[in-house]
Structures
1.
Amino acid sequence: MQETSFYIKAYGCQMNVYDSKNIIEIMECRGFVRTLDPKAADILVFYTCNIRENAARKVFSAIGMLKSSKTKVIAIGGCVAQAEKDEIFKKSSLIDIVFGPHVYHKLPDYIGQILNGEQSKILDIGLEKFNKFEKAQRKNDVLFSEFVTIQEGCDNFCSYCVVPYTRGREYSRAAKDIISDIRYLISNGAKEITLLGQNVNSYDGDAAYINIGTKGNTWKLDRLLYEISGIDGLKRLRYTTSHPKDITVDLMTAHSEIPILVPFAHIPIQSGSDRILKLMNRGHTVAEYLDKLKMFRTICPHMQFSSDFIVGFPTETDEDFEDTVKVVNDVGYVVSYAFKYSRRKDTPASQMDGQISEHEKEGRLRMLQDSLSRHQIHRNNSLIGQVHSVLFDKCGKKENQYIGKNGYMQSVVVECDSNPIGEFRNVLIESSGINSVSGKILQK
Ligand code: SF4
């Protein structure tokens, strides 16, 4: 019998990349064969992101470019699917299946129903919580640095954000399942794990069947980190993304006590203006945010941070924007990400008066990015002469060139005769650029 092939394209955040890997596993377990050539695929799967308008638009143009005479089924999944529901069928008659981020384990069945002619269009945007994790048994393509979802959804309802509507309310996976996934990944070659969640700090897991732990009575993020750090073979541990208001002293202490937990956290502030933070419904002030970072550095002196920023939020004035630049200058982030405010359907901010023109947003974005780049250059320069532990995971463009990441998620480039991919090596940093630093591997 001829094999049915599928091609998958994922957009957006690391959680979407993680979900798309699970979809690959689920599809392969059901006999579908993955191809990297969309024109040769029977089935095209697009796993989408809805955080910014551009991301949603990109999907529809990709369908036109990637489909071919061989395409039999087109499925759109993820957050655009959840947000747009059956509107998607009206936007493109080519689409057969629309599935939300909570039901991707059902995709093989839905594809079968379309191929058999039992259904002509399928829409499933159900909010089942845990089934998809049980169905995805990662069996191949384990990378040296892997992601594991511990928490999904968000209860914060920032006024600009679609996540609470597309990923649903917060829920946490049971600690025993997370630990079992990590053990499996480590035994198959992973050395670094990043715990994923829309708001990992709100992790509130179920400790059933695990009779360990002396730290507190409930499974909050800090306790989970202590437990995971004891897994044999795990060499480095990270987590993302954090909400400032949910960062606890216990979590800061975990950073100072767990050697394999990186002294680095992504803690988005979004704006440096209290007035804008209030309109964003972020639940904290600038001073509260800066106090947490200061306390973090007191408890864990090597701690460094990254952040996200939104410029051009409705009613943002030049003064509000200058306050944001001031936070950038005061904190000195290792790296940060700045975005123009994107008006998302059905969010409170999209209804606000005082929307800022694209021209104004562009100007502010350029200014903020200049400021962030200056800090990044300064930070990278300051690493010269330091020794960093680097996990190498890919080749560079030149012969004998290899690239890895240090604990602060910075790219480190070396040239050497023996291939270090898959290894942690100590690297003496000798030079720096804006996006990476270079150095030499020290002999053990
Ligand atoms: S914390 Fe705010 S920005 Fe982050 S996912 Fe939740 S609602 Fe969205």
2.
Amino acid sequence: MSKLDVRPEGKLDSHSMEKEKRRTSHWLFSRRGPAFLDRIFRYGDPALQRIQAYVTRGQTIADIGCGWGAFSFDLADIVGTEGKVYAVDLSRKCVDQIRMDADRRSYSNIEPHAASAADLTFIKDRSVDFVFANGLLCSMAIGRQAAVAEVKRILKPSGYAYLSLGMRYPFGYVSHDEWESILSGFKVQRGGSYREKWALVSLKEE
Ligand SMILES: C[S@@+](CC[C@H](N)C(=O)[O-])C[C@H]1O[C@@H](n2cnc3c(N)ncnc32)[C@H](O)[C@@H]1O
């Protein structure tokens, strides 16, 4: 568990998606349980305060591991109709719910996708201003290294990413060493310690 796991390159077929879902089995950490839990977890989560200086109108944001969309709608409000929020989760149930809510609430700037964070091929290289990955990596049983590579691929050179751990190891999948290893691939702008469980990062210059 202390090392990054390695996923072969390439698209995830439906068999791999199912395997990944089975391995991301803990419903509490993956929050594929009842949606009301989101409201409990979201209460007091300072993620939006931490990122507010980095997200603005017109931006493209990727909310990866968006769950039931606890933050997707807030982010959509911030970017406005000129912007866009990709709401991505491995759980189709969550994504279908977001799609229904977005239709009902007339949010045309949310683009929901049932997909793995390890394979975001529907998002172009260097096209995203901000990646919001709140509680994602600690919920991923496999494919974390590929997910981090995808964050780097889709971010614009001027972009930022918010990476946070809902739970530390052994309750979440990311150990102290792995967290340090992930962050060493970025420029850490704010946060960053394993104890804090979050970091605001940007890309390292090439
Ligand atoms: C702790 S929840 C966080 C939900 C949301 N970001 C929030 O802050 O309320 C983690 C989410 O990551 C999703 N997830 C787990 N593995 C994933 C993967 N490989 N790709 C995309 N989403 C994944 C789970 O389904 C779950 O909805």
